[in-house]
Write a structure and sequence with these properties.
Elements lengths: L16 H9 L2 H4 L4 E4 L10 E2 L7 E2 L20 H13 L3 E6 L9 H5 L40 H17 L4 E4 L7 H19 L4 E4 L5 H5 L9 E2 L2 H12 L5 H15 L6 E3 L8 H5 L9 H7 L8 H15 L3 E3 L27 H19 L1 H5 L3 E5 L3 E8 L2 E8 L5 E4 L9 E3 L4 E3 L6 E4 L3 E8 L5
Parallel strand pairs: 1-4, 4-5, 5-6, 6-7, 8-9
Antiparallel strand pairs: 2-3, 10-11, 11-12, 12-17, 13-16, 14-17, 15-16
Helix pairs in contact: 1-3, 5-6, 8-9, 8-12, 12-13
């Protein structure tokens, strides 16, 4: 959009549905082992720019899709309804699912509903005279994100049904496989019961297919878990595990013991068999590699940093640390979700610097190696039932070295991490049968009389797979 007030980072870059469809049909995603796409909102958004409420009050466009002014039309800058249908069809023909990022919490003031039914929305001004803006926890179910983004009052049945009608339109009209639900915790739980019931009654039962719904909520595990279960969402992004793993893998003096305790807490809340999203990052957070690669400091304003300087990977060890995070996400219970660009280690500060144009060509050796690592991790996960359905057992954990195993009947996977700057020698478990294990990432194995020894390089990981039914 041509508006001098809007800097390039806060404007449309030119990406569209046709580009995604092209990458589907040239097998970019499939070749990397991905079998599902989460696509950010495609609803029509305003043509003009709006000023952000927090200082320094920068101007933005709705390039991200979260300012809907239509409940049924694809944004013309992204494509058409027909093109979106074609994209989903092509994805299905390539054995890929498509999950749409759907906004149930709010609309933009240019949406006709704001003028036609202002009573459908929570009031902007609180009884004490304050504006109910970004009061995420104090007024969790009614707060507005911006003065131009009125929040639906889902406690009114007529409102909840209208929003659910729109969600059902998208999932049926475009044959979607599910939703990523924006701002889940800011919406009444009863709305999620309503939508889930309609999905079950109108799609899952009559069409005999499963619909996956994953939510987005920043908060405690207890709050996140309150939106899960029978009649509610299938999963949410596991931000708590992500924040702890980000610290454990990116910061040298944060111990694996903390991370192991955090993971056990996750199991206490969600169980050992769940479909929570193990994220590598997302569009609201600085890129992991920007912290791990020391392009971004932990004590600075991550958003302002992205406006004030170019954030790049300053320390190449950051690539190794990101590989470890990818390996962690691929080998713990849950579903690994890779934010676009993390498959090559693309840097970025806070929003909007973390939403750069995707790069496919002219990649560095480190970026190509990262992409190959992600591809192999996805292949290993798909080929080993232990990583999909197996139990989880901790073997050993210290400040800098961690090992665990997952087992499903005859299939066993061992995972090892070394976040230290030294080479580590690990005596392999005596249940690992020498003739039947495979070292997936090339670490040296030193032969010994009783137990072989795994040589784990600094800032590295290894995965050993074993199938007891394999022939010698």
């Amino acid at each position: 959009m041509d508006d001098a007030r809007v800097e390039a980072k806060a404007n449309y870059y030119g990406g569209d549905l046709a580009g995604i469809e092209q990458k589907i049909n040239t097998h970019y995603f499939q070749d990397l082992g991905f079998n599902a796409l989460w696509i950010s909102p495609v609803n029509q958004n305003p043509w003009g720019a709006y000023q952000e409420y927090p200082e320094p009050h920068r101007w933005f466009t709705g390039y991200h899709g979260y300012w809907p002014i239509s409940l049924s039309q694809v944004d013309m800058r992204f494509g058409t309804n027909a093109l979106f249908k074609s994209l989903v069809s092509d994805a299905h023909n390539n054995d890929m699912n498509v999950y749409l990022d759907y906004v149930s919490n709010h609309i933009h003031i240019e949406h006709p509903l704001w003028k036609e039914h202002p009573e459908w929305f929570s009031p902007l001004v609180l009884p004490d005279g304050r504006n109910n803006l970004r009061l995420w926890d104090e007024y969790r179910l009614t707060t507005w994100f911006e003065p131009y983004m009125p929040s639906f009052d889902h406690s009114q049945p007529i409102v909840a049904n209208a929003v659910a009608d729109s969600a059902m339109f998208w999932i049926t009209e475009f044959n979607l496989d599910g939703f990523r639900h924006d701002a889940t915790k800011h919406i009444e739980i009863e709305y999620w019961r309503l939508l889930t019931r309609r999905i079950k009654e109108e799609i899952e039962v009559p069409q005999q297919r499963n619909i996956y719904q994953i939510g987005e909520s920043f908060g405690s595990r207890e709050l996140i878990g309150s939106y899960l279960g029978s009649g509610l969402l299938n999963a949410q992004f596991d931000f708590n595990t992500y924040f702890d793993s980000r610290s454990a893998f990116a910061i040298d003096d944060v111990s694996f013991e903390m991370m192991e305790t955090s993971l056990q807490t996750t199991f206490d809340y969600y169980g050992y068999h769940h479909t929570m999203g193990n994220i590598s990052g997302n569009h609201d957070l600085p890129r992991f590699i920007s912290y791990a690669g020391k392009g971004l400091r932990w004590d600075e304003d991550e958003k302002e940093a992205g406006w004030n300087r170019d954030i790049e990977v300053e320390d190449l060890i950051g690539y190794n640390k990101l590989k470890m995070l990818h390996a962690f996400n691929a080998t713990i219970p849950g579903i690994p979700i890779t934010y676009y660009g993390d498959e090559i280690g693309m840097p970025g500060a806070g929003d909007p610097d973390n939403r750069r144009m995707m790069r496919f060509d002219s990649l560095s050796e480190d970026e190509l190696d990262m992409r190959n690592t992600v591809k192999k991790l996805n292949e290993i996960r798909s080929a080993n039932m232990a990583l999909l359905y197996g139990d989880f057992r901790n073997i050993s954990v210290t400040n800098e070295v961690w090992s665990y195993t997952r087992n499903y009947f005859e299939n066993t996977v061992y995972v090892y991490f070394n976040k230290s700057s030294k080479t580590i020698y690990i005596k392999l478990n005596d249940t690992i049968i020498k003739e039947k294990y495979a070292v997936q990432f090339g670490s040296e194995i030193m032969a010994a009389d009783v137990n072989d020894v795994l040589v784990l390089n600094p800032y590295s990981f290894e995965i050993i797979t074993m199938n007891k039914t394999l022939d010698k």
